[in-house]
Amino acid sequence: xxxxxxxxxxxxxxxxxxxxxxxxxxxxxxxxxxxxxxxxxxxxxxxxxxxxxxxxxxxxxxxxxxxxxxxxxxxxxxxxxxxxxxxxxxxxxxxxxxxxxxxxxxxxxxxxxxxxxxxxxxxxxxxxxxxxxxxxxxxxxxxxxxxxxxxxxxxxxxxxxxxxxxxxxxxxxxxxxxxxxxxxxxxxxxxxxxxxxxxxxxxxxxxxxxxxxxxxxxxxxxxxxxxxxxxxxxxxxxxxxxxxxxxxxxxxxxxxxxxxxxxxxxxxxxxxxxxxxxxxxxxxxxxxxxxxxxxxxxxxxxxxxxxxxxxxxxxxxxxxxxxxxxxxxxxxxxxxxxxxx
Length: 341
Ligand SMILES: Nc1ncnc2c1ncn2[C@@H]1O[C@H](COP(=O)(O)OP(=O)(O)OP(=O)(O)O)[C@@H](O)[C@H]1O
Hints:
Residues 319-341 are annotated as: Disordered. The chain is an alpha/beta fold.
């Protein structure tokens, strides 16, 4: 079996040539999008506002009808399955609209559990644990419509989790959660994935959450996939040649100007009594020249380290959202696409 076959065998979600337009077809939300998601992985679906993430997720859920494309979830074609696809996927979409606002939190959990053919009485303990984990147990008997936005969000999450579907879509799962609940939720998702081999597709603008949870990220822009990589590889790909130099002294304006003339200084920062200088250097040997210039000005370097980009930096580079290139295709995205072709 070659690697492509192995990959296909393990894919629990497969999207092929998806296109979704709205209105008379002039709004192209998703354009020829294809990807697979392996069972037991957490994949981030990212992109700036209007990139086409929600339209992609809604097409997979069968909530909107795609113009073109084939979608399979756990071996079931979404087109053929109709409403039955809900046995395979659960989702928390924006605004907790997938729960019943007139039912209590506990009633919602029982309802969604029974949807899956599970007798909620058998799962009472599990439901209590889940409510405690998300810190909504004290609201268990309140109707959802009276809850705060964060509590509604947690209820929606709990309802998606109790359904135990092979694939779970989460749109901004930590939005409105306090720090502790956000942390607990991340750990709970990790547990689901590793212990129960479930698959999570996560859409979030919080790159910390994405970097913490996702093995791989798919970045969309303008309805197309611009990047599809493992998080570690992606960060490595975007490692810049930037160095952070910490100097044990305040740096005079004269010294700063001299350094800026000689080197590509990106930023100056103060760290207590120390000064931090971030500088880009294509040639590592230039670090020695930098040390020489510091010595000339009687400055004592404390450390020199390579600056590691985080997912936020990568995202901004890939989507061109840093304002450098608002119109055209981002240069790095084009390079990545070339590399993958
Ligand atoms: N029901 C609709 N009718 C018309 N246009 C729509 C509709 N839903 C989405 N669009 C358009 O399709 C494009 C993609 O929208 P979509 O909601 O899929 O993006 P998104 O990446 O989820 O954005 P966000 O991060 O803001 O939720 C946008 O241009 C949006 O205006």
